[in-house]
Amino acid sequence: MTGQIILVALIIVGVVGRSSIIATAACILLAIKLVHLERFLPGIERRGLELGLLFLTLSVLVPFAAGKIGWKDFSSVLTSWQGILALIGGAAATYINSKGLDLLRIDPQIIVGLVLGSIVGIVVLRGIPVGPLMAAGITAILYKLFQMLSGES
């Protein structure tokens, strides 16, 4: 019952905070619980991130498939400072995401803080949720920084 109450609270927060992604995800999970399909939850937990990344990658690659981006665009990326910065930013983001995935594997309970932080970011800072992976990556960097500053190993 506690899980259902939390999901309803997340739906409300998602609606109030204008985050359709959080509201929709919480609605889907609540529906799964209400129709007693909990046996699918471990599979969603195990493969959901991969499926989400698959669909995110598909959406990013659509302009290539649609012919909106061609070889000329590749050369402009390599010859402009904006393109080079985008290349560096993309590489840095994927590295940070990998550190977030490592952190989630080591300490899966951290997801609670990531979700609550994302909700605060959406509602208070009017941010856009990009998912727990980037949030976990930033958390991993902050964790390492905290360890360095506090003298922990």
Automatic annotation (TrEMBL):
Question: Quick one: where is this thing mainly located?
Answer: membrane
| Keyword Transport annotated | no
Q: List the membrane topology term(s).
A: Multi-pass membrane protein
Source organism superkingdom: Bacteria
Keywords, alphabetical: Cell membrane, Membrane, Transmembrane, Transmembrane helix
TM region(s), chain numbering = 6-32, 53-71, 77-98, 110-143
| Any one GO cellular component localisation term in the record | plasma membrane
Localization terms from the record: Cell membrane
- Please state which protein family the record places this protein in: Belongs to the UPF0756 family.
**PANTHER family per record:** UPF0756 MEMBRANE PROTEIN YEAL (PTHR38452)
Q: What protein name applies here?
A: UPF0756 membrane protein PAT3040_07000
